Amino acid sequence: MTEPPKPPEAGDRLVAADRPSPPEQPARNVSPRPHRPALPQSVTGPVRVWQGVVVFLAAAVRLASRLAALILVLYAIFTVFRANPANIWYQFVESLASPLSVGLANLFQLADVRWTTLVNYGLAALVWLIVGSVVAGLIRRAAP
After folding, report:
1. Distance between CA atoms of residues 132 and 128, nearest Å
2. In the prediction, which pLDDT does 26 show?
3. Section 111-119 average pLDDT
4. Residues 6 or more apart whose Cβ sits within 8 Å of residue 70
5. How many degrees, rounded to 5, is the angle at CA 125 between CA 120 and CA 128?
6. What is the mean pLDDT of the chain?
7. Of 61, 103, 111, 129, which has the highest C-beta tally within 10 A?
8. Phi and psi dihedrals of 23, rounded to 5?
9. How far apart are CA 129 and CA 68, in angstroms?
10. What does the longest C-alpha to C-alpha distance in the chain come to?
11. Would you tell me the crossing angle of helices 113-140 and 88-100 to the nearest 10 degrees?
12. Could you give the CA distance from residue 93 to residue 76 in angstroms, rounded to a whole number?
């Protein structure tokens, strides 16, 4: 059997030097901060209605921009993976993606048409996401 380990000695490197312990801090009498409600109770009537309208409009703008980006990405994926152009889903997404490309459908001309579509429509999707987020943020700032 092996011998049990020896207890550390004062000269060992792993033993902490004889330092004084930090002084204890006296207990302070600190009162907790009062809770502040998210919306003041005094906000009622037209101001409350206006806040609801602004929140709804911002959410609608965010949703619309994300749907536009989704349609553009779907069209790019359909094109890259050579989906059947006679398929009704392909035709539906293609008919929606053309006007949503905001003029970026022929920005870059690459050697392969599939990669050209992926880059151009992917860029248009990014534009929709960024513009939608910015506009939704500006609308949210309109709330009092």
Report:
1. 6
2. 65
3. 93
4. 125
5. 130
6. 85
7. 61
8. -65, 145
9. 8
10. 85
11. 60
12. 10
Residue type, 20: P
- The structure tokens listed for 76 are 């790019």
Q: Is the pLDDT of residue 28 over 70?
A: no
pLDDT at 100 over 70: yes
The alpha helices in the chain, defined as continuous H runs, are: 46-80, 88-100, 113-140
Tokens found for residue 81: 């993976």
Q: What span, in angstroms and rounded, lies between the C-alpha atoms of 98 and 76?
A: 11
CB 90 within 8 A of CB 84: yes
Phi, psi angles (nearest 5°) of residue 82: 55, 60
In order of 9, 10, 46, 50, 67, the CA distances from 17 in angstroms are 11, 8, 69, 66, 65
Q: Which two tokens stand for residue 132?
A: 């939608």
5 vs 1: CA distance, rounded Å: 12
Q: In this predicted structure, which of 28-32, 99-103, 124-128 has the lowest mean pLDDT?
A: 28-32
d(CA 114, CA 106): 12
Provide φ and ψ at 66, rounded to 5°: -70, -35
